[in-house]
Write a structure and sequence with these properties.
By secondary structure, the chain is an alpha/beta fold. It folds into six domains: 51 residues, no CATH class; 132 residues, 3-Layer(aba) Sandwich (Rossmann fold); 151 residues, Rossmann fold; 126 residues, Alpha-Beta Complex (Spore Coat Polysaccharide Biosynthesis Protein SpsA, Chain A), CATH 3.90.550.40; 217 residues, Alpha-Beta Complex (Spore Coat Polysaccharide Biosynthesis Protein SpsA, Chain A), CATH 3.90.550; 101 residues, no CATH class. Helix content is 41%, strand content 17%. Strands 22, 23, 24, 25, 26, 27, 28, 29, 30 and 31 form a ten-stranded mixed beta sheet that branches. Strands 14-13-15-19-17-20-18 form a seven-stranded mixed beta sheet, covered by helices on one side. β5, α9 and β6 form a beta-alpha-beta unit.
């Protein structure tokens, strides 16, 4: 019986009660810091305390604990691959910046490699440093009590001695004119712990964009910035990733998962449904039962720190749920680390993951997760996708990138720029074209005939492009990235059958190798001399045979035409849309039309070309004129080009789920149907299922009068990406989408329902709609957006008049839509555009005259505009929402 533990917990509550009585007696207001202290009080609940007081229950819990720990130890695989350590970084070097640091020891160790980092134990120690060093700033990094810190261990406890002395430290830093910087990645659950401390800093860096205004308000200044996680390339890298991998999905969340535990169990259910091995990293302590959900206890594995890292490196999949969904910047650090190792990531929805890592897999159901885990038909296909994460991390998300961003915000430019010389050997015109397409930005081309030794002195790295090979867009970038996690003299591509992602002593082809310029001469590049030792070999991708030519795929006998409208969103096309189509059971029976509306970035063209090369059922068409301004033109063109009886649409930044198109196609084999419609899951700061009325659960409802259904439900629409449509129906009714309009698909849906004879409503989610994608048309509110709205509404008014339903639309839908859509978007327009946008919205109203307005906000809007009271309009419809 452990009475002492219960007594200690009770005494903590008694002390708090005494302090609280004193506060009330002094009529003092409770502070945020004091609220945090309440949260830190130990629980006195029966569930928590009874094991301390009941010997029988305590013994039962102990037996249960011993069995759980023993089973978790037994599940640890006996043969884990040895960790291959990095030998350093040849790309990065210590920045000439001096900082004093307080925070986690792990962060101090990272910073010591990035810049000159000075540690101290107390305020006096800090003052001693200022006497001998010119400090650029004092950095305070938020830490919880569980973490080992350099000093001031209880900085996360308000009213503690650590907090008291930290505040004195900040005062002394100001006296010494040393800027104070505060950084935190703990804003999800611990904002209140640190906000009062952060407010005393000169600069604040948070990983959660949603906290910017909170910090600005508390600090009284606007020097508050968002900073994402950055990985340590020495600790987290793909070295050795090609050997010893197995298909295990490893759960790496720390328990308890405070939010979205259901997401975790749902993803795990999908892993099991796919018959993939599932392991769940258990908490390392052996004194308490695991707080993992009970459904996962049969997969718990207990590992020390080294074993856990070995297990992560040996697993193809990392399953890790985010506890924040709506933040556009905050992602679990484990997701960054997993990609750096070369793991595939499967997770729940998170805005930042979707925007920053389209290569990571977001599953919204167990069925969706199962499809993701089953999608790769070969080890090579899986391996190539894993490398997308490696590239993304090492090109954009190392701790050096983050530190450079922090310095830039402080007015210090120390961004690392390493320059590459590319030497053209053979057909220089052809090679120079490949050089121009290289994604790596700091590069220079020279023909081999013009090369001099002086050229090698002005660059950091050098390589040869030879006409025997074709170099794809990320060839140089991938090779250069390897210098970030190794200190190598050369990085090369493998010969056939050679080991990949490991250290090597030699290379087989100078034209497949990047050299450290300081370690080679022209003789090494011509092959007269050979550099040996201290090399690294990456993967075999991003190059083709030099004679390879891109040719159009031959027509085939397909069953469904999938039309994908594209404009400057190649990464999403490749990683989101197309990957999801690959998971369809009828992928090989689809002809997929990638119709480019005039993309202006070369990356999108490159991704389209890759897909054409890899898949015989992919066809393309490009307008090459800078774009029409909406998805209508490429969709219409796709319908025109389609050769099958059935049409489906999917946007590049959305995903097909649940094998939905295959199910809709099966239903459409009923010749009497014009189209079949499912549902859509909208993913933004909140998730919302968008579905039509009167669905029959897990069934199909047939509409024999779609026109009456549309009118009965007030013209409610569904995404046209939830449909499979009979092509002959579109052709016979001359139905097409309005070019240059935004939201044109809603009008297209309404026109189809007005013309269709029979429609099937299916209770199945067909696609996920990522509504918070950066740069998406409906997320970018400019004057052009309202111009496109006018185009749509002009077309709608004419179409509804032609169909004889204009009066019904005016009476049942127009005002509601105007208020809930247009007036809301008006608030999000730029101040300088407000008056122009008001004029455009009034033009929309004019399309529906005669009109008797009944909704107060719409009526007021029209009356104020007609009275010329623009300033009052702006005050009510714009300024009031700032």
């Amino acid at each position: 019986m452990d009475v002492k533990t219960t007594l200690r917990d009770v005494q903590a509550h008694i002390k708090w009660l005494k302090d609280e009585k004193e506060r009330i007696k002094g009529n003092d207001r409770i502070t945020g810091d004091e609220l945090v202290l309440i949260d830190d009080l130990p629980s006195l609940s029966r569930k928590t305390q009874q094991p301390h007081l009941d010997d029988v229950l305590g013994a039962k819990r102990l037996q249960q604990l011993e069995m759980e720990v023993a089973a978790a130890k037994d599940r640890l695989p006996r043969e884990l691959p040895a960790l291959v350590e990095s030998n350093g970084s040849g790309y990065y070097e210590k920045t000439d910046v001096h900082i004093a640091f307080v925070g986690p020891v792990r962060r101090a160790n990272e910073l010591e490699r990035i810049c000159h980092t000075h540690l101290f134990e107390n305020v006096s120690g800090f003052l001693e440093i200022t006497e001998t060093e010119k400090l650029d700033f004092l950095l305070i990094s938020a830490a919880l009590v569980e973490e080992e810190t350099t000093t001031f261990h209880h900085m996360g406890t308000p009213l503690s001695h650590s907090r008291h002395w930290l505040e004195k430290l900040i005062i002394q830093a100001r006296r010494k004119e040393v800027p104070v910087v505060f950084e935190t990645t703990l804003d999800t659950n611990h904002f209140d712990r640190f906000s009062s401390l952060a407010a005393k800093a000169d600069y604040i860096f948070t990983s959660n964009e949603e906290r910017l205004n909170d910090y600005m308000e508390e600090a009284g200044h606007e020097r508050v910035f968002v900073i994402r996680p950055g990985i340590d390339p020495i600790r987290f890298n793909p070295i050795g990733m090609y050997a010893g991998r197995h298909e295990t999905a490893l759960v790496t969340n720390a328990f308890p998962v405070h939010r979205f535990m259901n997401d975790l169990t749902m993803l795990a259910e999908g892993v099991r449904a796919a018959n993939k091995p599932l392991l769940v990293l258990r908490e390392r302590h052996e004194a308490f039962l695991s707080e993992a959900p009970q459904e996962l206890h049969d997969a718990l594995v207990l590992a020390d720190e080294t074993e856990a890292e070995q297990l992560k490196r040996a697993s193809d999949w990392i399953l890790h749920v985010n506890e924040v969904k709506g933040s556009p910047t905050m992602t679990e650090t484990s997701i960054y680390e997993a990609q750096a190792r070369g793991n595939l990531v499967i997770t729940n929805y998170n805005v930042a993951v979707n925007n920053d890592f389209p290569n990571a897999f977001i599953a919204t159901s167990a069925l969706d997760a199962k499809g993701i885990l089953e999608m790769f038909e070969s080890k090579d296909e899986r391996y190539e996708h894993q490398l997308l994460g490696v590239r993304n991390i090492f090109s954009n998300h190392t701790m050096y990138d983050r530190f450079s961003e922090m310095l830039f915000a402080l007015g210090i430019d120390k961004k690392v720029r390493r320059h590459v010389l590319v030497i053209g050997r053979g057909d220089t015109a052809k090679l120079e074209a490949q050089f121009e397409r290289q994604s790596y930005p700091y590069k220079r081309f020279v023909a081999e005939t013009d090369l001099t030794e002086a050229d090698l002195l002005s660059v950091d790295y050098v390589t040869v492009f030879d006409s025997r090979h074709m170099y794809l867009d990320y060839y140089v970038e991938d090779l250069i990235n390897a210098f970030k996690y190794t200190d190598s003299s050369f990085v090369t591509k493998p010969a056939a059958g050679q080991v990949e992602h490991d250290f090597v002593d030699c290379y087989t082809d100078v034209a497949l190798t990047v050299f450290k310029a300081a370690d080679v001469s022209i003789d090494h590049l011509t092959g007269e001399e050979t550099l040996s030792g201290n090399g690294y070999v990456i993967d075999r991708f991003e190059r083709l045979d030099g004679t390879d030519e891109l040719v159009e795929n031959e027509p085939g006998a397909y069953k469904l035409s999938m039309i994908v409208p594209i404009y400057n969103n190649g990464r999403y096309l490749y990683n989101k849309c197309f990957s999801s189509l690959r998971r369809s059971s009828m992928f090989d029976e689809m002809e997929i039309w990638l119709v480019d509306d005039g993309s202006t970035d070369s990356e999108t063209a490159s991704y389209i070309e890759r897909l054409v090369r890899k898949y015989p059922n992919v066809y393309t068409y490009a307008f090459n004129d800078g774009g029409s301004g909406s998805a209508s033109r490429p969709r219409n063109k796709g319908v025109e080009l389609a050769t099958t009886k059935f049409i489906a649409f999917l946007d590049p930044d959305n995903e097909a789920v649940n094998d939905g198109y295959a199910e809709l196609f099966r239903i459409m084999e009923d010749d009497s149907l014009d189209l079949a419609v499912g549902s859509m899951l909208k993913l933004a700061s909140r998730e919302a299922m968008i579905e039509l009325n009167d669905l029959e659960p897990d069934s199909v409802k047939i509409l024999d009068d779609p026109r009456a259904y549309l009118l009965e439900h007030n013209f409610k629409v569904q995404s046209i990406q939830t449909m499979v449509i009979r092509k002959s129906f579109l052709d016979a009714n001359h139905l097409a989408q309005v070019i240059g309009a935004v939201g044109q698909d809603s009008l297209f849906f309404q026109e189809m329902f007005l013309r269709a004879e029979r429609v099937a409503l299916v209770d199945l989610t067909i696609h996920d709609y990522y509504a918070a994608v950066a740069g998406s048309t409906v997320n970018t509110i400019t004057k052009k957006y309202f111009d496109k709205c006018v185009i749509r509404e002009t077309a709608r008014a004419k179409a509804f008049a032609r169909e004889g339903v204009l009066d019904a639309y005016r009476d049942s839908r127009f005002e509601y839509f105007f208020e809930m859509w247009y007036l809301v978007f008006l608030r999000r327009s730029r101040p300088e555009d407000f008056n122009d946008n008001v004029e455009k919205l009034y033009t929309i109203v004019e399309q529906y005259r005669p009109l008797e307005l009944t909704r107060p906000l719409v009526k007021q809007f029209v009356e104020l505009h007609e009275a010329g009271q623009q300033s009052e309009l702006k005050r009510l419809y714009f300024d009031a929402y700032l």
